[in-house]
Design a protein that fits this description.
The complex is a heterodimer of chains A (about 600) and B (about 600). Chain A is an alpha/beta fold and about 600 residues long. Chain A contains 20 helices and ten strands. In chain B, the strands form two sheets. Chain B has a six-stranded mixed β-sheet, with helices on both faces. Classes of the chains: A alpha/beta (about 600), B alpha/beta (about 600).
Chain lengths: ~600, ~600
């Protein structure tokens, strides 16, 4: 990882970008930072004035200054706090916004890219980093505070300059005071150097600890998930894995010590600059007190100038520490930005799909080969086939022969490595993606439902057509069950987003089928749609599909060879190639792979 | 459930700390002392310098005094800096070394029924929230108590110092601080009230964030265009959060303004009082010192009120944690299940899930004889998996009894019974550790025996072809070079695991649903030959596969509808016959001859 430090300009742009560049926010940031930074110095000036009047025994005068001081500070504080509130009020939603944009991106970028382990790893790192150090919100408030320290230091510099200008040649030796100032400046530089040196050292140790911890984090997340996973709970108990897994988790123990060691190391790193800063404070007081004794400045001004100089040192130290944090966090947050700005890849086709009421869409594969990115093995080899309009096609083959991959290519989740897929004669990559997928309804083997209301799941969105919903649920054999649910079709699914209902595997599968039916697309693809269904439900699904599919083009994948009999044509895949092709009858006559699969299962059912 | 008191939570948290982590206790106390002393010393030094100037001491004397004072002050700051940094991270160690392992042990030992209980689930989530966080919960408790200690010590010291000056000023300071603390408390109350609506919004957003991590779901999102729907939910949650936070921000700003005004009142009063004192002969150096005390005073009070609120919240969370850790354990002393064979008898067993109104199983009676192969078939939701859970002893019947070799599952030592059975479920349990560990389910195993069961299960060739053989990891969670097995291979691995365990009772719950026809047949044959001496309960939707079983039970709506051999049930022409016909009808092909 190359480390690039943020400049002040970049920080400003970052905060403005996150707050959408509203001029009110810009004004609030500038005003808030200046007011907050000015507070201690304003206080010092008034305080000096009060002390001087008290030394001169002008008590009434001093009291008047007190009233002034309190009023001015009151106004400044209310302004500073108000602006800060405004900025912070904006920071929290930024956190949500960036995650929302990430989700948006994950949903719209190429599936192929989202599927890559590298993307996922980067993601996990960001999320882990956020847990440890806070996310965008924290980063924004750190930057805000950084600006505040910066403004404070500018004020302090003004005071130091003033102090230098006020050398009265008549009362003190100008050369001595000059030497003193040079010495003061040098010791200031020394303190800064030390602070910087040690804070870098601390930062490096911190990064190293986090890296060590990263491995631990992954492992602990894995183990905790394993221990608490709903489907594994029974296995863990039945197989008596309590002690085995407990022993695996023993690795948790030493991690805490690592952090105490980090704390001790940080402590040591901070101790030296802390001591140096006090020596510098001593030097400051000596310089200023010398001027006071010489009579160039008053006693009251001693507190004012010393206060300014010492605030400057601690301000610079805090600023350095913040700078470390900001850059450290920035490395993590960059991953988000990088992710969000990734191209949408081949989803950027522009051709619209011709709207056809007769559903006459012709899909053809021409010499398609495919291998997953980063692997050497071809999953599909030189596959050519045509999906005839209105045809019901079965894809058959052993586990791992590329059936599901073929579906993924048809849906443009992946692009063929070689060859092309054409819709009505045009390469599918040229179509607008949203339009293209509109012609497909798919029930994937590992379909996914969401923890939102049932009807919205089936309708794939918030606009639900009641009649269409009922029809889809009826056809999938889920209508009656839906009516038994506590809030009927409005019932929330799952427990992840509030208290909903947990559906059985079979019921969930029926909902996934209902979703595909609701969409009513010209192509219907079913990848093992009945694996979790009992025999009667399974038969009902197949038979309903036949009445529904009618003029549509359908593709079935199933290990239950009985379902193939419904189909007009059967394609047998083997090792990524088309092995056999034909109707049920012709393939049985051929006595090849299809015959083998079919007769193996049929053997069980013959008396 | 009775909630633990604050004091008993103190005992819960601090007893192990005092016993095992004396160094951390010491460091906490030292941290507090230095935290309080350092600012007072700082004020003393300023006041000393002003005093020296007031008295007009010589330059060299002043230089000596300043150097001496700041060297000492520097050392104090050094120690304080070290202790602060240490204090900021030392409680992670307390949490991971003294508390986490008990929590994990509980996760592993709560019973299946407890795990599935909705109330326990909720408690478990809360306990997790208490344990797996840095800034609240158990770790927060230590952090916030450390703050509390600092602020109480600070307040006492300042009260003492201000009190020696003037008790009326002390009274004024305490009064003002109380007003501002109660305003802060009101804001906190408001904040707490908003937690529920806020966490509802957060739940939705966190849920969607988790979905983003799940790549598999990405297919459906693209095909069905679910993106805008889900993002719409996100937008609504953000909008709601904004509204809630806006109200909270206004409250907080109100309390900020009140604080500012109160500080103003305090400053004017104290300054004027001290000026009055000055006019009556007080020294300016004293004036400087006392003003420092006055402005630091309210800091301690607000720190106290903040840490008290935080400690209270942490304590509530600790109550959840302790309630979870205190869940009843299985009685370890039950009757042990002996004998080389297992016989299970269901005697009028009914079962109802907690919170459910209807029974899942009603009056189910049957016997699994030693060495018998029993198939359980039925529609989705007929209660088949519940039978498995009752038979294995994971559940206890609501009424009736399950007898294992004559002992009711209510009375037996569950763990000894678990050790006598092997189960294979549809979603197979596998870890990302090595193949050897996955079969033995232990860290150390007998290599020869593993190879033997692998060859019986028909997986030895595959494993021998791997570079690291038995040491090969499954999945990439732990080792980057881990492999993944195909569905058929995985089923063979599970079979090898069952054989390695050599248990007399084997339960198979739809293990082959995702296999192709050839792999399925191969697995059935293996079951048939390898499990012949064992008592087997087999669940499958594929009725044909039940043919290797001695007897079939058909479950419908929680009751036994039919039972007998395949031939008997077919002759019966009942529900089994119908299901078999439906499934087999398309295989009835003249072409097969």
């Amino acid at each position: 990882m190359t480390k690039k430090n943020m400049t002040i300009r970049e920080m400003w742009h970052y905060i403005i970008f996150q707050t959408k560049g509203y001029w009110t926010m810009k004004a609030a940031i500038v005003l808030g930072v200046l007011a907050a930074a000015a507070l201690p110095y304003v206080n010092n000036v008034f305080y000096a004035g009060i002390l001087d009047r008290l030394v001169a025994s002008a008590y009434d005068d001093a009291a008047r200054v007190v009233v002034w001081m309190v009023s001015v500070i009151l106004v400044l504080r209310i302004v500073a706090k108000g602006c800060e509130r405004m900025v912070r009020h904006y920071c929290k939603p930024c956190e949500y916004e960036i995650k929302k944009r990430t989700a948006q991106k994950a949903f719209s970028m190429a599936y192929e890219a989202a599927d890559r382990t590298e993307t996922l790893e980067a993601f996990r790192r960001v999320r882990a980093g956020e847990k440890g150090m806070g996310g965008v919100e924290r980063q924004l408030s750190e930057i805000y505070e950084y600006f505040q320290e910066l403004a404070g230091i500018l004020f302090a510099c003004a005071f130091v300059l003033l102090l230098f200008i006020r050398t009265d040649g008549a009362k003190e030796n100008v050369a001595v005071s000059l030497v003193l100032f040079v010495l003061l400046f040098l010791s200031f530089a020394a303190v800064l150097f030390l602070s910087n040196y040690f804070s870098k050292k601390e930062g490096a140790y911190m990064v190293e600890t986090e890296r060590k911890n990263e491995m631990w984090n992954t492992l602990s997340a894995y183990l905790l998930n394993l221990i608490n996973k709903e489907t594994y709970v029974k296995d863990i108990r039945l197989f008596g894995l309590k002690d085995y897994l407990y022993k695996k988790t023993e690795i948790f123990r030493p991690v805490g010590k690592m952090y105490t060691e980090l704390g001790c190391y940080s402590g040591k790193c901070r101790a030296v600059p802390a001591f140096a800063a006090q020596l510098f404070a001593a030097a400051t007081y000596i310089c200023i007190a010398a001027k006071a004794i010489a009579g160039s400045i008053t006693i009251g001004e001693v507190t004012m100038y010393a206060g300014a100089v010492i605030t400057m040192v601690s301000g610079v130290q805090r600023m350095l520490a913040k700078y470390q944090d900001i850059n450290y966090m920035n490395e993590y947050l960059d991953t988000y930005e990088e992710f969000i700005t990734r191209p949408n890849m081949h989803y950027d086709g522009t051709l619209p799909i011709e709207k056809r009421d007769d559903n006459r869409y012709l899909l053809e594969l021409s010499h398609v080969s495919f291998r997953y990115p980063g692997t050497a093995q071809d999953i599909l080899k030189d596959v050519s086939m045509t999906f005839c309009i209105g045809e019901k096609l079965a894809l058959v083959g052993l586990n791992g022969t590329g059936k599901t991959t073929l579906i993924k290519l048809l849906c443009r989740l992946y692009e063929p490595t070689e060859g092309e897929i054409r819709l009505n004669g045009i390469n599918i990559a040229k179509y607008d993606y949203d339009e293209y997928v509109r012609i497909f309804s798919v029930v994937f083997q590992d379909f996914h439902l969401y923890a939102f209301p049932l009807d919205e799941n089936v309708a794939s969105g918030g606009d639900v057509d009641g009649q269409r919903l009922q029809r889809a649920l009826e056809l999938a054999g889920m209508w009656e069950r839906t009516q038994e649910l506590p809030q009927k079709e409005k019932t929330l699914l799952g427990h992840e987003n509030g208290q909903g209902v947990l559906l059985s595997g079979g019921e969930a599968q029926k909902l996934a089928i209902a979703r595909a039916l609701y969409k009513d697309a010209p192509f219907i693809i079913l990848d093992e749609p009945a694996a979790a269904l009992d025999p009667l439900a399974e038969a009902a699904v197949y038979e309903n599909f036949n009445t529904l599919v009618r003029d549509k083009t359908a593709i079935y994948i199933s290990h239950r060879m009985s379902s193939c009999k419904f189909c007009d044509r059967i394609v047998v895949l083997d090792g990524g190639r088309i092995l056999e092709e034909g109707t049920h009858e012709t393939l049985l006559d051929k006595q090849g792979r299809y015959y083998e699969l079919y007769s193996t299962q049929a053997a069980y059912y013959r008396e | 459930m009775k909630k633990d008191s604050l004091w008993s939570n103190y005992r819960f948290a601090y007893t192990p700390l005092l016993r095992h982590k004396k160094k951390i206790v010491l460091s906490t106390v030292a941290e507090a002392v230095f935290y309080v002393i350092v600012p007072v010393v700082g004020m003393t030094i300023t006041s000393m310098i002003i005093g020296s100037l007031e008295q007009g001491v010589s330059v060299w004397k002043l230089v000596a005094r300043i150097l001496l004072a700041f060297t000492g002050y520097g050392v104090l700051n050094m120690v304080k800096g070290y202790l602060d940094a240490r204090g900021n991270s030392q409680y992670i160690e307390v949490r991971t070394e003294l508390f986490i392992m008990d929590h994990i042990k509980k996760d592993l030992t709560i019973s299946m029924e407890q795990y599935e209980d909705a109330a326990v689930q909720k408690l478990k989530e809360k306990a997790n929230d208490c344990m797996w966080a840095n800034m609240w919960g158990i770790e927060g408790f230590f952090r916030h108590n450390s703050d509390l200690l600092k602020s109480v010590l600070g307040l006492l010291l300042y009260m003492l110092l201000v009190g020696t000056m003037n008790w009326r000023i002390l009274l004024l300071l305490v009064g003002i601080s109380l007003v501002s603390a109660s305003a802060a408390y009101m804001v906190t109350r408001h904040y707490e009230k908003m937690q529920d609506p806020l966490s509802e919004q957060n739940m939705t957003m966190n849920y969607i964030n988790r979905e983003v991590d799940d790549v598999q779901g990405g297919k459906d999102i693209r095909i069905f265009g679910l993106g805008s729907w889900i993002i719409g939910k996100y937008d609504r949650a953000i909008k709601n959060c904004r509204r809630l936070y806006f109200r909270l921000d206004m409250w907080e700003y109100g309390s900020n303004i009140l604080d500012t005004v109160l500080d103003g009142v305090r400053d004017i009063t104290c300054y004027l009082y001290l000026i009055l004192q000055l006019s009556q002969g007080m020294r300016i150096s004293e004036f400087v010192f006392y003003l420092g005390l006055v402005s630091g005073f309210s800091g301690w009070i607000s720190m106290i009120s903040k840490s008290v609120v935080a400690v209270k919240q942490d304590s509530d969370r600790i109550c959840d944690l302790r309630a979870y850790l205190g869940l009843a354990e299985d009685a370890p002393s039950g009757k042990k299940v002996d004998g080389a064979e297992i016989e299970v008898v269901f005697d009028h067993v009914s079962y109802r899930y907690q919170g459910a109104e209807e029974y899942t199983l009603r009056d189910v009676s049957f016997r699994l004889a030693p060495g018998e192969k029993l198939a359980l078939v039925g529609m989705n939701g007929a209660g088949k998996t519940t039978v498995v859970k009752l038979m294995s002893g994971l559940y206890l019947p609501t009424s009736g009894a399950v007898y294992v070799n004559g002992i009711s599952t209510r009375e037996l030592d569950r763990n000894s019974y678990f050790a006598r059975q092997a189960a294979i479920f549809q979603e197979p349990f596998q870890t990302s550790y090595s193949i050897g560990e996955n079969i033995a389910l232990a860290e150390s195993y007998d290599g020869d025996k593993i190879w033997e069961v692998l060859s019986r299960a028909g997986l030895d060739k595959k494993v021998r072809s791997l570079d690291r053989q038995l040491e090969t990891h499954l999945g990439k969670d732990i080792a980057p070079d881990g492999i993944s097995l195909s569905g058929g291979e995985l089923q063979k691995l599970l079979l090898a695991r069952a054989l390695y365990r050599d248990a007399p009772l084997v339960m198979l719950d739809e293990p082959t649903a995702a296999l192709d026809a050839l792999a399925e047949t191969e697995i059935y044959e293996k079951y048939h030959t390898l499990l012949h001496k064992k008592s087997v309960l087999f669940i499958s939707h594929r009725l044909a596969s039940t043919r290797f079983c001695d007897r079939i039970i058909l479950l419908a709506d929680g009751c036994i509808r039919e039972q007998g051999t395949h031939e008997e049930l077919m002759r019966l022409q009942g529900a089994y016959h119908e299901m078999f016909q439906v499934q087999g009808r398309y295989y009835d092909d003249p072409a097969l001859g």
